[in-house]
Design goal:
The complex is a heterodimer of chains A (445) and B (337). Chain A has 445 residues and is of the alpha/beta class. Chain A is built from 15 helices and 17 strands. Chain B starts with 21 loop residues before the first helix and ends in a 13-residue tail after the last helix. Chain B is globular. The chains are: A alpha/beta (445), B mainly alpha (337).
Chain lengths: 445, 337
């Protein structure tokens, strides 16, 4: 016990310390964003195969009604966030800029918008496969950023025994406070979700990992645990990328997950705290994943807020609700400032993985003068995966992509610590991202 | 309220950056070297300042002349040419003719940096390339050491010698502490070495100020502390071994640490990130290699001083060291449970 406590202090090696900027929204209670006229729900807003529509244009849909079914195992359902009518099923703007197939729904202005979901499946009675299927029906995805359909992790290989369930409340991205607010305001839902999952998995212990910069969340959760409950709250060092799943496992359990393996192979399942709270909602009330917690923040936002936003709400409407953009806004990011995606058009909708809408001005978006790499080694000291970003960037600039494979480019999680740390202003992670895309393309032929 | 689509940028994340830039880091190095430079000028007179300036002028002008016209501003503003010229100037003897110092600056940047592809691509430390060139070309001028003049404003005639004519050395010459040690077996009082009251290159004599500047740079995280630490520790260790074998024949470790260009080289030249290993383990190997070579050259070689060649030799080994000291990638090469 002593030894493991000492180890916990150590955490993962390397990483960076960006300014947090969480003070803008950390103490703001979550507000519910009012319903708007029109919603756009892309069918491919999760990792894997796009969902298949099960409604037709003109059809009446209720809030919470399933409008698209999973297209394969690694895929999930999609539900209508409003009561109204399906207008079109066509191509609409996706946050990244491309067009993707989406269901457009017009809200019924006279509907109550009360949730009339199907009766919740009894999670106790379900078979293991039934539990996975029930999770797939919920439309819940991993809300930490990757948007992997939540049920995928719970479909365990034969012979795997889960020892630990980890609730990831690190929220290490600057500006974002939505997980923080979930832990503070919906701590009961989080603990309920942990109980459901822990019971289902037969996990011996559940651990909630939270960065120390959220003392209120740590205190509130701690207070609700009864003695000897096999759930622990562990405060973590404030360091980016603490929320990366393998880094968090290293910090909490001092286990290094071997490359190519998943945490589940070692008997560990990790979910974001918001994902777990959503799972509790689904099994307790039958509420599918249709509302998303979004942090609207950044220097370009008039009224930074934490909002509950129905999926499919256009970003423009979210910004309107928060007082609009300041005149000097230059870039709007969906997600966090380290790993998020820039939004090409304000028409893009809120999707399941939209943890934040951040507006930045010229101060943050100005690209520094780029100098040649002087091999100062700061990127090596930043990279939590112990890669050599300096060399990767040099090879990427020469388009020597195959050579990059030999120095393990595919282990890069694109956390951006290298670009953050580079004093020469080299867009290292951007170069790596491009190279990875090229390499994946080559592999697929 | 602004909700018209502004002209949104879509440059990819991360948008945040830590504030340090290459230019600022170079500025830190110049700042850290300032006390030692001023001490050199104080000890050796105004002539020393002229020599350092000539070295800088040669380096910066070469950088300017050979840069594409659109990039000149950026190339000069990164500060690397200035640092190269400054380091070269500090490693020159205080009676060197100015035109030689200037030529050294030209060679430093031209042969030491630009023909390799510019900043970041050179294999050898540019300042030391320039110095090695000068030592090979003008062996007499490069090994004639002036004593402290005592007269601050007196500029020796040799400094102002006409280019390509044989200079005459009229100043009082004095052997360096390493020279006296090597050829006469005489040590120098440690305190003189620490404050710099000895003859030697312009910037290398004041051990104290060089160390203070180094501590500043380590605290600002502008240099890898492992390199000076490993060089100094290994020089101390190797010379201690020799000293213990024969205390009369070999210098004591403290003398070895504070004499010659060791501190200037270990703190400011070996740590040039471009030409030293990028991996932490590599930095240790590099430093121990430099330390071993310094002791070997000083004790068994023909020259009294070996810091320059030690660093240049280890520069050549840097790509190899880097190759074999890559850190283990997280999750790789561990047993699968």
């Amino acid at each position: 016990m002593m030894l493991s406590t000492l180890r916990l202090r150590r955490g993962f090696a390397h990483g960076v310390h960006p300014h947090e900027h969480k003070v803008l929204t950390a103490d703001l209670p979550t507000q519910r964003m009012p319903f708007v006229d029109r919603y756009v729900l892309p069918l491919d807003q999760h990792l894997g195969v796009p969902a298949k529509p099960v409604v037709t244009p003109g059809q009446r849909v209720r809030r919470g009604q399933r409008i698209a079914a999973p297209g394969a195992f690694v895929s999930t359902s999609l539900h209508s966030p409003v009561t109204g009518w399906v207008r079109t099923i066509g191509h609409h703007r996706y946050p990244g800029g491309r067009f993707s197939k989406a269901i457009e729904i017009e809200a019924d202005p006279y509907a109550t918008q009360r949730l009339e979901g199907e009766p919740p499946p009894d999670w106790h009675a379900l078979s293991p496969d039934g539990f996975v299927a029930a999770l797939q029906d919920s439309g819940i995805v991993g809300l930490g950023g990757a948007a992997l359909p939540a049920h995928v992790k719970y479909s365990l290989r034969e012979g795997i025994k889960i020892k630990y369930l980890i609730a990831n409340g690190a929220e290490c991205e600057p500006y974002l406070t939505n997980d923080h607010r979930v832990m503070v305001e919906r701590s009961d839902r989080l603990l309920r979700g942990i109980e459901i999952l822990r019971t289902r998995l037969g996990a011996a212990e559940a651990i909630i990992g939270i960065e120390r910069n959220k003392p209120d969340a740590i205190a509130i959760l701690d207070r609700q645990l009864w003695p000897n409950q096999p759930v622990r709250v562990v405060p973590l060092r404030v360091k980016y990328p603490q929320g990366d799943s393998k880094m968090m496992i290293k910090s909490l359990l001092d286990i290094e997950v071997p490359a190519g393996l998943h945490a589940a192979d070692l008997g560990i399942i990790m979910n974001n705290v918001s994902t777990i709270a959503a799972i509790a909602d689904w099994f307790d009330t039958g509420m599918p994943y249709i509302d998303r917690m979004v942090t609207v923040s950044g220097p370009g936002i008039e009224r930074p807020s934490n909002l509950i936003v129905p999926l499919g709400t256009p970003v423009r409407e979210v910004l309107r609700y928060c007082g609009g953009l300041s005149d000097d806004t230059r870039e709007v990011i969906m997600g966090g400032p380290m790993m998020g995606t820039p939004i090409a058009s304000l028409d893009a909708p809120i999707i399941k993985s939209s943890s934040g809408i951040l507006a930045f001005t010229a101060t943050e978006t100005a690209r520094p003068q780029e100098y040649p790499c002087i091999r100062c080694g700061r990127c090596l000291e930043a990279c939590p995966y112990f890669l050599n970003p300096s060399r990767l960037a040099r090879l990427a600039k020469s388009r020597m992509y195959e050579e990059m494979k030999h120095i393990q480019i595919m282990e890069c999680v694109e956390c951006g610590s290298c670009t953050y740390a580079c004093p020469s202003g080299i867009p290292i992670v951007q170069l790596i991202r491009t190279a990875k895309r090229v390499l994946r393309g080559h592999k697929q032929g | 309220m602004k909700l018209q689509d502004p002209k949104l940028l879509v440059q990819p994340a991360p948008l945040l950056k830590q504030p340090l830039t290459t230019a600022k880091a170079m500025g830190d190095v110049a700042f850290a070297l300032a006390p030692a430079t001023l001490a050199g000028v104080w000890f050796f007179g105004l002539g020393a300042l002229l020599i350092v300036s000539a070295g800088i002028a040669g380096a910066v002008l070469t950088e300017w002349v050979f840069s594409p016209s659109g990039q000149r501003r950026a190339k000069l503003l990164d500060g690397s040419g200035l640092i190269t010229g400054l380091l070269l100037g500090l490693s020159l003897p205080p009676g060197l003719p100015l035109w030689m110092a200037f030529l050294g600056g030209v060679v430093s940047i031209g042969l030491g940096k630009l023909i390799w592809g510019g900043l970041g691509y050179n294999l050898f430390n540019p300042a030391l390339v320039g110095r090695a060139f000068l030592l090979a070309t003008f062996p007499v001028a490069m090994t004639t050491w002036n004593a402290h003049t005592g007269d601050f404003f007196a500029v020796q005639a040799s400094i102002l010698a006409t280019p390509f004519l044989q200079a005459t050395y009229d100043g009082m010459s004095a052997a360096t502490p390493l020279g006296t040690m090597k050829f006469e077996g005489q040590s120098t009082p440690l305190w003189d070495l620490v404050i710099g009251k000895t003859s030697g290159c312009i910037g290398e004599t004041s051990g104290l100020l060089l160390v203070l500047g180094g501590i500043y740079l380590v605290l600002r995280r502008d240099l890898d502390w492992r390199i000076p630490a490993s060089i100094l520790l290994s020089v101390a260790a190797f010379s201690l071994v020799l000293f213990l074998i024969d205390p009369a024949g070999y210098p004591d470790p403290l003398f070895s640490l504070f004499s010659g260009g060791l501190l200037l080289g270990a703190i400011y030249m070996a740590t040039d990130p471009v030409t030293s290993p990028i991996t932490p383990k590599g930095a240790w190997i590099f430093g121990v290699g430099v330390g071993l070579l310094v002791v070997l050259i000083r004790v068994f070689g023909g020259f009294p001083e070996g810091v320059m060649y030690a660093i240049l030799l280890m520069n050549a080994a840097t790509p190899l060291i880097d190759r074999y000291t890559q850190p283990r990638v997280f999750g790789k090469g561990i047993k699968t449970p």
